[in-house]
Design a protein that fits this description.
Elements (H helix, E strand, L loop, with lengths): L5 E4 L4 H10 L5 E2 L8 E5 L4 H11 L4 E6 L4 H10 L3 E4 L3 H13 L20 H11 L4 H8 L3 H15 L4 H9 L6 H5 L2 H4 L4 H14 L3
Parallel strand pairs: 1-2, 1-3, 3-4, 4-5
Length: 217
């Protein structure tokens, strides 16, 4: 049960507003507020940053909770960078919203438990960092393989592993994430001499044997 007399600003959209009302049914909250709500709830979207600024500066919201349809790494970062105090998944709204409101009102930042690892830079392997660095340069898989003396299938395997760790699905999204200063990946992928060091002759022979062997299975 929430403390009494908390004022809640509803999302502008009728559907989301109805869901927020339903999630807080029975709670002693006040929805009839226009300015200076204790908590404003908004739905994520392309105008999220402008919406959060409007809620804070024009309407004077003390805390903002953003509801996201997808809690991927990019969406989470955008919501928090926009100034949201809490982020919850739309699928969890009914159970998570009361807890999120209590948490942000005592100064905590709220994100879905399963999404916590997405906000820390993922632990990429040496090869994944090398391959991503060349992707940022615009190289194709064949060009990366030629530079690193790897089979093209091996390059694809490293890319698949890196994409899964980064929570992206395309080369364009991977490049955008690596170059995003807030993601903490730029120095890891591009700033290491070891990452960008060309393979030595001994490594070239060893990688060649490994790739030939792997191509037989």
């Amino acid at each position: 049960m929430l403390p009494p007399f908390i004022s809640i600003a509803l999302p502008e959209e009728p559907g989301p507003a109805a869901r927020v009302r339903a999630a807080l049914q029975g709670e002693p909250v006040d929805f009839d507020v226009d300015l200076s709500p204790d908590v404003a709830v908004c739905w994520g979207g392309p105008r999220l940053a402008a919406l959060v600024r409007d809620l804070r500066h024009r309407r004077g919201a003390r805390h903002v909770i953003t509801v996201l349809e997808a809690t991927d790494a990019t969406s989470l970062r955008r919501a928090l960078e926009a100034g949201a105090d809490g982020v919850i998944a739309a699928d969890d709204l009914e159970t998570a919203l009361p807890v999120a409101i209590q948490s942000v009102m005592v100064g905590l930042t709220v994100i879905p438990r399963q999404a916590r690892h997405q906000l820390a830079p993922p632990a990429l392997s040496h090869r994944e960092r090398q391959v991503l660095a060349h992707v940022v340069e615009g190289c194709t898989n064949a060009e990366i393989g030629a530079r690193l003396f790897l089979a093209e299938s091996t390059v694809k395997s490293h890319l698949s592993g890196a994409f899964a760790k980064l929570g992206v699905r395309s080369r364009r999204d991977a490049v955008a994430l690596v170059l995003d200063p807030s993601a903490g990946l730029t120095a890891t992928v591009l700033g290491s001499e070891e990452t960008n060091r060309p393979a030595s002759p001994g490594e070239r022979r060893r990688f060649s044997r490994v790739d030939v062997a792997s191509s037989l299975y």
